[in-house]
Amino acid sequence: MALQAETQAIVTQFDFSDENVNKAVREFLRQMDEGLEKDGTSLSQIPTYVTAVPNGTEQGLYMAVDLGGTNFRVCSIKLNGDGTFNLTANKVPIPKELMVAKTASELFAFLALQIRNFLEEHHGDQFEQHVRRRPTMTAPEGYKDEHVFRMGFTFSFPVQQSGINKGTLIRWTKGFDIPDAVGKDVCALLQEEIDKLHLPVKVAALVNDTVGTLMARSYSSPGKQGAVLGAIFGTGTNGAYVEKLSKLKKPLSGDYDNSTGEMVINTEWGSFDNQLNVLPTTPWDIALDKQTPNPGLQMYEKRISGMFLGEILRLATLDLIKNPKVSFFKDENSASNDWRTTTYIDKSSSLYQEWGLDTSIMSVAAIDESPTLSALRQLLESTLQVHMPAYEDALAFKKIAAAIGRRAARLSAVAIAAIVLQTGKLSDPAHDNEPIDIGVDGSLVEHYPYFTDMIYEALRAVDGIGEQGAKRIRIGIASDGSGVGAALIALVAAGMEKSTDNLLGDLRSGAANASDTAASSDSEEKPTAN
Ligand code: ADP
Ligand code: MG
Asked: Boundaries of each Hexokinase C-terminal domain copy (predicted)?
């Protein structure tokens, strides 16, 4: 029974009590306010210049592109105005050599080319029309600025945004390295290449994936009220929420529409409490942080998101393997194994390699409720090269994984609770009994079992929320956030432009033309989410 006791000793270190949740919520609120007042704080609280969220009645045809880590996604989205949409998308891998190109132009020219290919393939009619009409125009450039398509650009790298379609690249991450682009406006870089190809496309909005999630959820969630928060729990974690302009004390450099009195704020909450005032810290959190290229930073994210949970589990598991009091993942004698054989770990096991354990195994560990844990044991064998793991071993692994997953969910609840409290909607009689809508996206929240249930459990324990408040909070998956959200922000941006009348005419005829566009075999066609 030593294994049970030693496992429990690890599990309890991942406890995060109701009292600690409350303390962390208070600290989150404090750090949020600090970030609204000045730059250089833990929560960056970046203004996005988006001042309204959609209500589902929006209509039109928009384009969206998404430059993530590995792929470039081009889509067109037809918003039907009733909370539904039709999405057509192409996905192309980014050639490795372009990730480290000499000039920004090489990468962005490739992106523009993909946009042209997409238009030719899926919007051939409009594209041909545009090309035919263009030379007859008498503009000095030899063609008319006829931007049939407004496009939202989801760019998942750190940018300093200074307007709805303006933002300079701070630094590359995720294996990209094109020094020429750093400090430049990424929207302008893309527009330049689009214009070289004379495409009828205007880069209308620069989009962060959290803001896209917020917009997508607002559009498709039932009811008239928009969502208050869009949150990502995937490789990383972050959230964007709707804040009152009066609370935003930092100076704003760009133009924005102040008629709504609100602005969407990108919190960059991955770096909440880097100073560790309230975050729980185990020996394995410390070991993991040391292994990363950015020790001391993104401390909240390192306890929550998919990129890190598996590594915490690996480090805790290794400690149990080395513990002389137990025989974990090894048997002295076949009699101690219910499969009547002996367990051993291959020397080349990925358990011995940094980042060798993918977080998705935690989902399998949580789902497997069978009396012999056969699915989990098979996976331990096939992915971690643990041969013939005994039932007791698999159970210990399952318990540690569950403790790490549960702590992550309770920590996630801290940000959600703080933002719900910050909106003041729970205590405002004007919003009596209305649901408070939250859009979420990312593999962790989508696939890890009971992740949302564990978030709700923690929310109920928060002072100022409680049973009643938690019932009003409605957390829902925002499907296709990066495409639909970017399209919606392009729509908001179009509304901010001066000559909107002409533009809306263009968009409406565009939408009518596109309604019968069919997807070809190499594209994803996603009719109508929700
Ligand atoms: P991205 O963040 O790049 O948009 P995802 O939302 O798919 O992508 O998140 C990927 C992360 O989620 C990876 O760290 C991966 O380990 C983790 N992950 C993938 N599948 C699961 C799963 N079933 N359960 C828990 N985590 C998962
Ligand atoms: Mg994502």
From this structure: 229-492
Helices (H), 155-237: 186-196, 209-220
pLDDT tens digits, 192-225: 999 999 999 999 999 988 999 999 999 988 776 7
Mutate to test the pocket of ligand 1, among 94, 355, 444, 447 (most ligand atoms within 8 A of CB): 444
Active site residues: 156, 171, 209
β-strand 59-67 against 149-155: which pairing, if any?
parallel
What is the CA(109)–ligand 1 centre distance, in A? 30
The pTM (predicted TM-score) of the whole model is 0.85
For residues 288 and 303, give the distance between their C-alpha atoms in angstroms, rounded to a whole number. 10
CA 267 to chain centre: 12
What is the arithmetic mean of pLDDT over 221-249?
A: 90
DSSP code of residue 433: T
Closest CA to 503 of 516, 490, 515: 490
Q: Which domains does the chain have, with CATH numbers?
A: 1-48+221-481 (3.40.367.20), 52-134+145-207 (3.30.420.40)
Q: Which of 91, 232, 360, 446 to mutate to test the pocket of ligand 1 (most atoms within 8 A of CB)?
A: 360
Alpha carbon distances (Å) from 179 to 92, 99, 189: 23, 11, 14
Reading the block at residue 112, the tokens are: 């523009």
Q: Which ligand is nearest to the CA of 445?
A: 1
CA–CA distances in Å: residue 162 to residues 48, 167, 169, 185, 239 = 8, 6, 11, 9, 19
User: What does the block give as tokens for 141?
Assistant: 């450039």
The answer to whether 210 and 230 are in contact (CB under 8 A) is yes
Largest CA distance in the chain: 89
From ligand 2's centre to the CA of 374, what distance in Å?
A: 31
Residues 483-501, mean pLDDT to the nearest whole number = 77
pLDDT at 506: 38
DSSP state for residue 153 in the 8-state scheme: E
> What whole-number distance in Å separates Cα of residue 525 and Cα of residue 530?
15
With 0-12 / 13-18 / 19 or more C-beta atoms within 10 angstroms meaning exposed / middle / buried, residue 174 is exposed
**Is the Cβ–Cβ distance between 487 and 55 less than 8 Å?**
no
In the block, residue with structure tokens 């969630």:
221
Among residues 464, 324, 330, 467, which one has the least CA distance to residue 392? 330
For residue 333, the SS3 value is coil
Contact 270, 412 (CB under 8 A): no
**Phi, psi values for residue 366, rounded to 5°:** -75, -35
Residues 360-372 have pLDDT tens digits of: 999 999 999 999 9
Q: Closest by alpha carbon to 239, among 522, 83, 44?
A: 44
- 206 alpha carbon – ligand 2 mean position (Å): 16
Place of tokens 């909440």: 272
